[in-house]
Amino acid sequence: MKQIVKNFNNLVKRIIFKAQNKTNNNFTISSFNKFLITLIVSLFVCLFYLLIPHLYGKVWVQTNIESKLLHEFKINLSQFSDISYHILPAPHFLIRDSEILVNNIDNQKSISKIENFQLFLNKDTFFDKEKMSIKKIVISGANFTLLQNDLKILNEFKNKKFSNNKIKINNSNIFLQDNLNDIISIIKIDKAILFFDTEKLLNFFNLKGEVFNVPFTFNFTSSTDPNKHTQIDFSSKLLKLDIFNKFLIEKNKLITGSNAISFLNSRINTKYNINKNLIIFKSDNSKVNNSQLSYGGKLSINPFDLNLDIELTDYKISKLFNSNSILIEFFKSKLLFNNNISIHTSINVNSESKNEIFNNGKINFNIIDGTANFDNTRLVNNKIGSLVLINSNLSVENDKLFLNTDISLDIKNYNNLFAFFSTNKKSRKEIKNILINLDYDFLNNQVVFNSVKIDKEKFNDKSLEIINNFNDLNNKNFHKNRLLVNKLFDLYDG
Q: Would you say 480 and 473 are in contact if contact means Cβ atoms under 8 Å apart?
């Protein structure tokens, strides 16, 4: 292009020189006019050059674009409704209302509908259309629809070298669906970019978007060198959450990696190995707030089967049952109540807080065939005795989380029990066991007692009426609840 402008400038000078000789120096052109003429003609030549792709045949353009996208970018673009050429902001072809196809088991299927698909061209090859090359791609207003099987295709794609030229995505959406075509979540894409970094020799993918109204950033890097790690970084400032994952695929296809999750004042570090569908993991110097956390377990993916053991040191047991805890929110999501999920989890926890009712405990959580329970969960008060959950059932109804269970209270020292409730000495009788059946509402922290037995003696209706005056289990109502308990001890004959 520079050479063309230079040659044209020399041509203008020769013409002007001849004109001056013919007019015997009576005709002169100022230097400014020379510059102005040269500038105008140069602009005209540039404009003509930039418009050359407009002269390419439309059928030829479509055929070659499809071929180059598939070969270089691994994009199978189809269903063009309109294709046009534009020189601003840079020379590019604009394709409207297109689709991206992927190979399914039986046939090809569409995973995206795109409003605007822009292909920016390399300007150095316009005179030879056979050398036409794509400099970058910009996708806008796209809706990507991905099923579970489509994610497997994308997983295979990430192990291949990306194009050296950038793919940018703006103002688009990703619809994640289950195999029944029900939408699981919608990811809004503000900006995304994908390319192979030739300096670092890394595949690079960056996404800024929003999911469940929560803004986040996602970064993915991988190397074509099998001896280097793949890294994934997810961050949300709103949630104060950072997730970093690094892994390496060995020659025997064993995956070894580490994962770090930072959330508020907690940091959970995990080392893991993946062999086919089995994941074995353990903690690595993890903390929840100021409490030490250790854990380990196995996870089978197909079918989903999790065995997990957790140890919490100096942690308030009451926090595990807080209505605003992450654990409760996870239960409310109903994701766990699935016939294809099996979970066996135990949490061993001890508390050094003087304000806690229980000093230590073991919380068991099990999911089998879509039903959840806390059977054999044990909480211990060192001075009084222990509490054990039997025949429990956890369910979600109308966005409320309920637990129905039998609770067996084994009294080690009934005098300490009476001292805890400040029971009148006249009402104190020897008690060894209290058996209760109740319904507990986690969200409202309310309880309904269905039956109560003390040393196998069943409470009468009057006693149950008193018990059900327990309106909630909040600490602020402890004095009121203590008075009700003492009324029950008064009615108990012993």
A: no
Return the pLDDT at 4: 47
Write down the pTM of the prediction.
Answer: 0.66
Residue 159 has pLDDT above 70, yes or no: no
Check residue 346 and give its pLDDT: 94
459/453 Cα distance (integer angstroms):
6
Extents of the domains making up the chain: 2-50, 54-234, 303-494
Identify the sign of the CA torsion 210, 211, 213, 218: negative
82 contacts 115 by C-beta, under 8 angstroms: no
Q: How confident is the model at residue 5 (pLDDT cuts 50, 70, 90)?
A: very low
In the chain, % of residues over pLDDT 90: 30
Q: Are 188 and 211 in contact (CB under 8 A)?
A: yes
Q: How far apart are the first and last CA of the chain?
A: 105
